[in-house]
Amino acid sequence: MPEDVNAGSRPYRSPRRAAQAAATRHAVLAAARELLGEAGYAGTTVAAIARRADVAVDTVYASVGRKPEVLRQLVETALSGTDETVPAAQRDYVRRIREATTAGGKIAIYAGAIAGIQQRLAPVFLALRDAAARDATTASLWREISERRARNMREFAADLRATGELRDDLTDDEVADVLWSMNAAEYWVLLVEERGWTPARFAAWIEDAWTRLLLARLDLPGCSA
């Protein structure tokens, strides 16, 4: 009997083959991530990824895809913290934000999540931004991901608004714009890479800043209610 077929109508899924495929995908993505940091998008070829991952070029195509798809998967996996794409609503930190009952609690969870995500995402996201200036395919991907970020921040702003704790003089779009600008890879690079902040300090800073900027009532030293 062939390994991938059983006596029934459903194909047999070999755990060994699945594990091998997952390991190959992990190696390809890790190699691509390293090369992007070293050579940028233009200097990272599929052949170079294959050599770094110790696989054939066709294996890169089969396990992940062509170079634009490799870049997309690097963004998606940086967001998920795994080797697979995970929709935003299914990510652990998003679930915890939705379950939190106060705006301060939601902000604290998200600030901590950003500090973890940007350590993985910032180099990839900036490579995507730079590539988008020269390549139509990556420009389309850049627009897609940027627009998705903006939508997600509007949803987060609405979630914060539902607690009744946001300032009345700010619209949800204004709240979303503040969140969008301060959770950006560029902002992370300025403070963490350029000014030497630790990820923990960055998380504490944006939690404090968003609390002071966005919430109507503050129980903080130096701030009036």
From TrEMBL:
PROSITE patterns, per database record: HTH_TETR_2
Keywords (A to Z) from UniProt: DNA-binding, Transcription, Transcription regulation
Ranges of residues in domain HTH tetR-type: 22-82
What's the superkingdom here? Answer: Bacteria
Which Pfam families does the UniProt record give? TetR_N (PF00440)
Residues the UniProt record assigns to the DNA-binding region sit at 45-64
This chain belongs to which protein, by name?
A: HTH tetR-type domain-containing protein
Q: Which organism is it from?
A: Actinomycetospora chlora
Lineage of origin: Bacteria, Bacillati, Actinomycetota, Actinomycetes, Pseudonocardiales
